[in-house]
Design a protein that fits this description.
The chain is mainly alpha-helical. It is built from 13 helices and no strands. About 70% of the residues lie in helices and about 0% in strands.
């Protein structure tokens, strides 16, 4: 099993160690409530994660990577990349992973002070890069083959965030950048059913923004870029046609 570089833990000052000790009950209480009804004694699992939190030493059985993101001693990009490397070895050796929908999960721990926004941003970039092509290079994936998954996951995450959009908590701009750079690789021939299912919600949100979005003035410029791209010659012709037809239907419904 992979081992972690424990330098970040060894370099913690006494004050930083004390601060981490004070924060641990936040995770402990959350995890206990979440896992108390599991088959394995929750205290055994908590002990494994406390070991990692204090020392950087992984337990052979209990090292679920979303928790390692929370518990690592460093906020830095290198630390987040190390966790992603473990995840690739154990679960995603031959695929591509997206973390958009996990962002709301991590926001809970930003709001209670357990982790920083810097950690969340570095985690997202460690998984996805700064844009879709970087994402495919990180995961050794074909851009055309994986565009369907990335567009679908980004679209679903943006839909979940719509009622509670907070630009200070959610790396909104970064996820839209991933979506915009993935759409040119999105081919209807590869995903003839799913493509339409993904394009429709993007158009619908764009049409409904003024009435139904918490911060329409902040979100509209991002969705405008998406719609402009979907109506351009830079996307698959069939995707462009679906976008045009569905926007016309939405416009007719308003009349």
């Amino acid at each position: 099993m992979m081992t972690f570089d424990t330098t970040p833990w060894r370099n913690l000052t006494e004050q930083q160690k004390q601060t981490r000790d004070e924060k641990w009950p936040l995770f402990e209480a959350w995890y206990y409530e979440r896992g108390k009804d599991g088959e394995i004694d929750v205290n055994i699992r908590l002990a494994a994660y406390k070991q990692f939190y204090d020392t950087g030493v992984l337990d052979e059985k209990y090292h679920h990577f979303p928790y390692l993101i929370l518990l690592h001693a460093s906020d830095g990009m290198t630390a987040m990349q190390e966790v992603i490397q473990l995840m690739r070895q154990e679960r995603y050796a031959n695929g591509i992973y997206t973390a958009y929908r996990q962002i709301l999960f991590y926001n809970e721990f930003i709001e209670n002070g357990f982790i920083t926004r810097e950690r969340l941003y570095n985690f997202i970039v460690a998984v996805h890069g700064e844009d879709y092509l970087e994402h495919t290079k990180i995961w050794n994936a074909d851009p055309y083959e994986k565009a369907r998954q990335v567009v679908s996951d980004a679209r679903q995450a943006l839909g979940e965030w719509r009622p509670c959009y907070d630009p200070d908590l959610i790396p909104y701009q970064l996820v839209f950048k991933h979506l915009l750079t993935a759409l040119p690789y999105y081919k209807a021939s590869i995903d003839s059913v799913g493509a339409e299912a993904n394009i429709r919600p993007l158009c619908r949100v764009y049409a409904w923004l003024p009435e139904r979005h918490r911060n329409p003035e902040l979100a509209l410029p991002y969705y405008q870029q998406v719609i402009d791209l979907l109506l351009s010659d830079n996307v698959d012709p069939e995707v462009k046609r679906w976008t045009s037809d569905f926007l016309k239907k939405l416009e007719a419904e308003k009349e």
